[in-house]
Amino acid sequence: MKKILFILCSLFLILTSAQAAEAPSTAFVHQLADEIITNVLTSQDTQAQKTERFEKYFLKALDTQTIGKFVLGRYWRTASPQERNDFIDAFTDMALKSWADKFNLYTGQQITFLGEQPAEGKNQVYVISQIQNEPNPAEVLWRVQEKNGSYQIVDIIVEGVSMVLSYRNEYTSFLKDHKLPELTKKLQEQADSFTSSIK
Amino acid sequence: MRLNNIKICNTLIALLMLFSLACCTTSNAINQTTLSEEQNDPFEPYNRAATDFNFFLNTYLFRPFDKAYRFIFPETIRTGISNFSDNLKQPYIFVNALLQGDFDDSAQTFGRFFTNTTLGIGGLFDVATYFEIKAPQKDFGQTLYEWGITNDGPYLVLPVIGPSTLRDTVGMGIGFFIDPVDWALPKAEQHLLWYRYGIQLVDSADNMTDLLWNIEQTSIDPYVTLKSYYLQNRNKFLRGEEAAKESYNFSFDDEDYGDDEEFELE
Known about the structure:
Chain A is α+β, with helices and mostly antiparallel strands. Helices cover 55% and strands 19% of the residues of chain A. In chain A, helix 4 packs across helix 5 and helix 5 (81-103) runs parallel beside helix 7 (180-193). Chain B has helices spanning 3-29, 37-40, 44-72, 75-99, 103-118, 127-130, 140-146, 166-178, 180-184, 192-218, 222-248; strands at 155-158, 162-165.
């Protein structure tokens, strides 16, 4: 009898600890954050190595195709395949440099994961995290999309500010008086002249 | 200029703003659901000029100044200055929490001010956070919101200070008068307030300069980007997480999301 009770107890423990483990989307963001912190932000390697590594993480983790399509709004529909590709390339380059610069502000803050929330759209969730900051922590939500068992980030929301929504406001406002190739050209020029990289 | 004159000046500005706010709430009330972009930003030409001026200030004044500031003072000292500046804001936050009927936050703020002023040696050390006393953020623009002026009014950029809305600008103007720190100072010592505003400016330059620089370097239209950042962030601050989620929880499949309008508040 005691033995059965013991087995039941351990089974119960195993089940509850399995539940307490992180959900896959959270685990994905958690691991990504850990890797970027260890291998890029706090690493002692050369700047070139760190920049290259950051680029790899960034391109793998971010679904730039989905984001790029959304930020153009209705202008995506009227664009030719070539224009779309050129835009995505320039946009990705710009976003990469901009975020590398933002990550430079990292000075060793703790990041804690607080769970998930459903998001609009198929297989999407918000992974809720807090970045240590005095006196109030900053809330960062990672909108993660699951596709065939792999995960990618489609938006990052910092203290209520959605990265994707802000890009969309910026680009659609510009496209009111300009053509898409002009936007692409401008983005590429800006990305090329922006020299900031991971320190 | 003596501070008394500044106060009179501020009163006039605040009254003027209150008047314009009254006008704006009545004329905009009808359009609340159908606000188009132009109505949302009727001051755009002026706002753009003010934003250009602020980015110029940031690049040629605040950023070089902040670099020198960070070079000269080690982080511990900068944190102390930041704590000191934050502590002086607590009486103002306390009054606003009371005016909003938020007694929990007012108690926390009072506890924070008391703890940091005494144990934290005049506010230089943030002991309150160590004791897990909350640090609520309140301002008079928010108090006006809580009192029922839920219409933000048009987006408005203030020189040096930065993005705001008409309601929040009025709130800031009135805020100058209800700040207990200003009232607590004897008349002969009022010049000390200049140091206070100086310290606040240094601290906020230290907080904001990198972000502004990043926007200026990476956005093809820094005006739109800053406006978008500010309005989304302020929306979350005033209306909470649920309201913020309404704006960022769009569907990626919908190409016409928001009908191609800029992000707007009600």
